[in-house]
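This part of the workshop introduces the protein records we will be handling. To make this concrete, we reproduce a full record directly below:
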Amino acid sequence: MTASKEIYLKAGDGLLFVDSLCHGSAKRTNKGERRIVVYRYGPSWGFFRHPYRPSKDLLSRLSKFQKKIVMPHQNVLTPNNK
């Protein structure tokens, strides 16, 4: 891609961009692991773009207020109702 730009990071560095940006990464060439944090802000009805669901263990450790943030809807309908 002519408009693409390689960005190199050092251990401990962070990179922040919007998820609608076309992005990717090359194969890791050094030891260690790559970690990500995904943060989205939007209407509660769009809270699960991917099939991620918080575990029962996590939910059991949260206050009522925290649960409303992490799991705003108790029943999530999917096309296959899973």
Observations:
- Residues 75 and 81 are 10 Å apart (CA to CA).
- The radius of gyration is 17 Å.
- The helical segments are 56-60, 64-70.
- The first helix runs from residue 56 to 60.
